[in-house]
């Protein structure tokens, strides 16, 4: 990456020059001091007063960690949130999914300052063993949001489609941006894994400026870089090749392929601003920009000619012993008829009836085989602009608009289009994806005073217009070309086929919605709320209506009961409806198999049995208790049960050569596919569990000690499966691949002057996965994080810490196919498989 060297020098200079930086981290604030804005439109509610359970995560707890990726920092402190690290999983290697309550990533609505955050252009198409829990989802990319821009993060653990619309089945994550009008905070951080790889650099700053006498402009910037990690072993075939040609000629020094984190470099910018216009009016805006480059890899392609090693199938049409088969004379004649030389595409063999065998001559460029290097350049921007105010008679109003775009440009190097023979390039641009969104909102709140009630009836109502646009841009011609020997070797760039002009297109979807949300205190001890929302999607002629009823009873000052009943929905995205992708997966024998995913309305999908998609629908119940034992001690316990019907599945079918499905694929320009997929409403699930939180803060004379304990129990059951949709392995993974039990225990200390720090224990319960016909069982693990921060002055401080201090790993991988492919640890691990990580951080505040 071109800016890597310069950026590292800057990072090193910052660490040495600041040598001890950082603003003193404030102690955690009691929950009664925090006013939440998520899940309620009543002003002044604290987390323990709301009708639904809400976690409030301070920005400091997100920033003071070894990881720079919000995807990881969220899961480190909130046990109801999970993520996984998937190497060799196409775009999912770079844009990692986040699960709330073990539901799909796009079943959680993400807001920024209360405005809907746009989706990534990536539709997660990975098949086993790479994260079947997230298969098919198109969600928000948390990795593009810098933690230094966040004031706090509110997690609504309750269905909220009646309040916010599509996607809020599992809950809502609302990112509240910093809004200080003065001050400069700078951070420089460096760290690496105990194994000596995976170096990370982070440079970040936040600047607050006044806008006139009554306004502010807050700006955050962050540069990050992260090197690759490698935790696998050498594949047997790669080791055999290395013994003949030398390890230096085999990818990754003889390993063949790499299991680990990708290479990442990115810039992220956020701003937040507002100006008080007087007369109870305010204009506001916030926005973001990100530019990130990521690089990972694919499966190893073995060369031809090594005894006992089967070559990559697209490089040689061979018999069971690996010997090349004669090329049909018709193919040789066709090459000659095009005025081409067969020697540029096949290998001459006087013993063959046609004079040639089906061995692509370009194999000589890779004497030790090759590993396609897959990367993505991600560009992302968003903006929200609005004006709000209050009438003299109490009506509050807010008119806003938003726009956003996420674009992914794929790149593939060290690969070939085997159908082009010796004329194939070694680098491709397989195509671009783009997700664009536009929205307009009009929101109103009126506190209606009714005699006899303990508080005004808070009536919120409004309307929303949204438009989503999904675009597929074609790749360069060589990435999708059907070469003279394409019928033998396959179509397009090996590993990730490019999108042809026939696959490209712009797909739009508008939606219109209106809602009403009412909340009031009927008495001093009884609060009641109700909401309803109607939403229409003209593109597939669907109208949804969702409702929510909530209540909270507080018979004693220190004790309260709360509960909700609600319905929810998630509309299929234009990306899910229209995506077309051809990539490579592995079968149960370890062979590489071309896999195509096709739009629901395509000829291929119709032949395979696809039906039009409809929204997923949910029914959600929560019930909980709140104990406010003292001003500094609170405990909450909440039960939830979420039924989701008609969940969208990625249906995959094996293609038999010569079958009607195979003929349809050939006619559509996709010969040689071993598997084909499409989206379908395929199954129903029930997710139920219990969340427990306990927070206690004590003044110990020489500082403040805070104990924060959180536990999440979650169990998912697949209730119904539509015939032909998902198989037994997918069902098993949905029910078992994420741990049922997660705990996070944090003990933090702040002297108020010089010293602060924390110790955090993360427990991941047992989990299982079902891959390639084998069930793997993996035990629970405790991971310990530690950080100590010393303040040299009021402006400067230095921190040192480690994540996974005791260098714990998940149990060994036991699957025979995955171990053959070089995986030594389970790729389904909820905490990765990289081991311990140490870091140092310098901070300054002015």
UniProtKB/TrEMBL annotation:
<dbReference type="InterPro" id="IPR012910">
    <property type="entry name" value="Plug_dom"/>
</dbReference>
<feature type="signal peptide">
    <location>
        <begin position="1"/>
        <end position="22"/>
    </location>
</feature>
<dbReference type="InterPro" id="IPR000531">
    <property type="entry name" value="Beta-barrel_TonB"/>
</dbReference>
<dbReference type="Pfam" id="PF07715">
    <property type="entry name" value="Plug"/>
</dbReference>
<dbReference type="InterPro" id="IPR036942">
    <property type="entry name" value="Beta-barrel_TonB_sf"/>
</dbReference>
<keyword id="KW-0998">Cell outer membrane</keyword>
<comment type="similarity">
    <text>Belongs to the TonB-dependent receptor family.</text>
</comment>
<feature type="domain" description="TonB-dependent receptor-like beta-barrel">
    <location>
        <begin position="375"/>
        <end position="805"/>
    </location>
</feature>
<keyword id="KW-0732">Signal</keyword>
<dbReference type="GO" id="GO:0009279">
    <property type="term" value="C:cell outer membrane"/>
</dbReference>
<feature type="domain" description="TonB-dependent receptor plug">
    <location>
        <begin position="48"/>
        <end position="172"/>
    </location>
</feature>
<keyword id="KW-0798">TonB box</keyword>
<keyword id="KW-0472">Membrane</keyword>
<protein>
    <submittedName>
        <fullName>Iron complex outermembrane recepter protein</fullName>
    </submittedName>
</protein>
<dbReference type="Pfam" id="PF00593">
    <property type="entry name" value="TonB_dep_Rec_b-barrel"/>
</dbReference>
<dbReference type="InterPro" id="IPR037066">
    <property type="entry name" value="Plug_dom_sf"/>
</dbReference>
